[in-house]
Amino acid sequence: MARLLQLSDLHVVAPGARASDVLDTRALLRSAIDRLLGSLDAIGPLDAVLVTGDVSDDGSAASYDFARAELGRLDLPLLVVPGNHDQRDALRDAFADAAPMPREGLIDWVADLPGCRIVGLDTLVEGQGGGRLRVETLDLLGEAVRGSPHEALVVALHHPPLRTGIRFMDAIGLENSGALAGCLDGASCFVQVVAGHVHGVYHGRVGRWPVSTAPALCSAFALDRRVEAPVGFWTGPKGCAVIDTGPDGIWTAILLEDADGPYAF
Ligand SMILES: [Fe+2]
């Protein structure tokens, strides 16, 4: 079993800027890392930090440098996939020495941890919000599933293969969830799919395998399925997730919001 800390949707900006002119995502990331550093003993030993995309909001080199430095404070191996806000080559440059990162092309990778294989998939289509899995990405996944030395496999991608009912997010979802389901259909190991993008906790399935989405580190989208639902974000609840991999493991969200306790029962 491997244990991962899943962080998602950091949306870091260049110095002096705010994401959507509202969120100081640099300060939010720094305070989240501070808080997580104080919680690591309670969480238990971790094997890696898995970042499921939208590391940057503006794609700037400065945003990636800051994110890399802050994530580095956790002193754990980093595994990173791009999101729709990311710039592939700027992300690659910043994390080249820290994460399994192809030198060119799509940022698809395979990482073997104790008892578990992690496969990172690149769904970024630069210039649009929605994501897509290319043929070469699906080929890599198929090969990774067939050749896995472990009984557990985690598939990490930014765009989840499920629909939330939030119209403005479903409009920029994953175009070809069916292709992912088909690719995983014959897997003989236990597969779980983890994603971000929707800035909230959702559980569903792709084919026969569970899908979980992590809360964002910077903001949240309300579950508002009305036709006239306002398009926009809320400042919270923010959070991340811990994944104990494998069929007996759990995926759990940690909300990074202020609360007092523990109080005795
Ligand atoms: Fe996204």
From TrEMBL:
- UniProt domain Calcineurin-like phosphoesterase: residue ranges: 3-199
Q: Which family does it belong to?
A: Belongs to the cyclic nucleotide phosphodiesterase class-III family.
Question: InterPro entries under this entry?
Answer: Calcineurin-like_PHP (IPR004843), CNP_phosphodiesterase-III (IPR050884), Metallo-depent_PP-like (IPR029052)
Q: Which UniProt keywords apply?
A: Hydrolase, Iron, Metal-binding
Q: Name one Pfam family in it.
A: Metallophos
Q: Which GO terms describe its molecular function?
A: hydrolase activity; metal ion binding
Its protein name is Metallophosphoesterase
What organism is this sequence from?
Answer: Thermohalobaculum xanthum
